[in-house]
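We emphasize that the prediction below concerns an isolated chain of 185 residues; any contacts that depend on oligomerization or on bound cofactors are therefore not represented. The input was used exactly as deposited, without trimming of termini.
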Amino acid sequence: MPLINKNSRYTYADYCKWDDGERWELIDGAPYMMSPAPSPIHQGISREIAGQLFNFLKENPCKLFTAPFDVRLNAGKADDTVVQPDLLVICDLSKIDDKGCVGAPDLVIEILSPATIRHDRIIKFRLYQKAGVREYWIVDPDTQSIQTCTLNEDGFYVTAVYSDTDIVPVNVLSGCVIHLQEIFA
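Result of the prediction step, given as a token string:
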């Protein structure tokens, strides 16, 4: 495994060679080491959201994936951005290859941890918006809330915040809702 220099720029080809037992993301060529294993609370929230999405998607062609799952947001260009969202839904199945997702998923969900708050709220917010991710959710276990970001026709996110007893519509999946009372129980 080559030494990863935080000041160097890398591509997906470089990323594929990093086999050091650590998880990395690559954003505009800059490497970001991912947090250690998620907490039990994080895992529980992820499991509950995934369960509700999975049940809805049984009769739907869209596919649900959970981390670790590589998403190459600019594979057709610089191919220097690879992220591993906590949860994602892909409706255009041609974007799925044997290594993950090529292009923007329809829905990305990130669950905050103390080490990822800035990264998820600022860096990934901008990244997902620029890449055209149609809907981005930021789940905050501490406040038991979800911020939804839905891409408008001008390419900017419109946000809404839901609390622990709300029912949240999944805008990219017509008829799908997530019951937060079950998520944060």
